[in-house]
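Re: the request from the purification team.
They wanted to know what the chain is likely to look like in 3D before they choose a buffer screen. I agreed to run a prediction and write the result into the notebook, where they can find it.
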Amino acid sequence: MTFETFKAWQCIGCGRIDGPQNCIGVCHDRKVELVYASELQASLARIASLRDESAALHAFVRQLAGITPRDGQWEQSFRSMQERAKAILGRRAENMRQATSETTTAPTPAGETRAREA
């Protein structure tokens, strides 16, 4: 999924954002809500990860619900399903560690400085 972005200038003091445009004489300032493209992309990546995790868990539960072990084989089936559940949870833990490391650099609050790109 891609989104259209535009280059703009942000004041390092008050946070005002200006985008260079040719004025046709009918301009009016209005409040808008914006997000940084990098934060949007990080959120979209996290959503994709959560969708993958949800699909894996759904498949696991569907398999668990449909299994009928043969006589005397319930323990082997249980151990197999337990190993699969551990693998799914292990991937989730790894994804959570990655997400946590990505958010350790917290977004810059309004009023603090951000680098100005040309």
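For the purification team: Confidence is low (pLDDT under 50) at residues 106-118.
Please add any questions underneath this entry.
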